[in-house]
Write a structure and sequence with these properties.
188 residues; two-stranded antiparallel ribbon
Length: 188
């Protein structure tokens, strides 16, 4: 049996003096008084400490999209997806798009296509993205770029206003001609 190194002994000593892990629940707000005990069960650092542990549960689907692009298989069982369905931010149109994408591309690539569409919600309104999904599904497309294009098209921006004012007549000038360029080149 080998003798432990100095670093290993030092780490063991630190572990022996380390406080036990505190129990933390996942309720939205939790307030407790916890005892800090060392490994032998003795009080350490003054014994009883007041601790306020606040855990706010924010499961926004948007917060997890970058991770879900890397691991798209986790989307189906994500708690954030359940919460988004309950809050009606993940609509039946999203589900229809996802089902169609998974059927056409497979589980991982179909989930990535849906994640690409969900990322559009950061820059566009929900109604525009839903209109884009409906338009893309109507032609059988599951490409997130197509959804973005159709969503922008659905925003129907008003045509620019053209001013017809006589005060702008001072800016009128004759149409330019290119005939004097031949003289510059010595042609003609």
């Amino acid at each position: 049996m080998r003798c432990p190194s100095f670093e290993q002994l030092r780490d063991r000593e630190r572990l022996a003096r380390a406080p036990r892990a505190l129990r933390v629940g996942l309720w939205p707000l939790l307030e407790r008084r916890e005892k800090l005990l060392d490994r032998q069960g003795r009080k350490c650092d003054g014994g009883l400490r007041d601790r306020v542990v606040v855990v706010a549960e924010t499961l926004e689907l948007d917060h997890y999209l970058e991770v879900l692009v890397i691991k798209p298989g986790a989307l189906a069982g994500a708690s954030a997806l359940v919460r988004a369905r309950r809050a009606a931010t993940f609509s039946p149109t999203h589900q229809r798009f996802w089902d169609h994408a998974r059927k056409k591309l497979g589980e991982a690539a179909g989930s990535r296509a849906l994640i690409g569409v969900l990322l559009l919600h950061r820059t566009m309104t929900g109604a525009a993205v839903e209109a884009g999904m409906c338009a893309a599904l109507s032609v059988g497309s599951i490409d997130p770029e197509m959804v973005a294009l159709e969503a922008r098209r659905s925003l129907s921006r008003a045509a620019p206003v053209v001013l017809d004012n006589e005060s702008l007549a001072v800016f009128d000038r004759p149409t330019p001609t290119l005939s004097h360029y031949d003289d510059l080149l010595g042609v003609g």
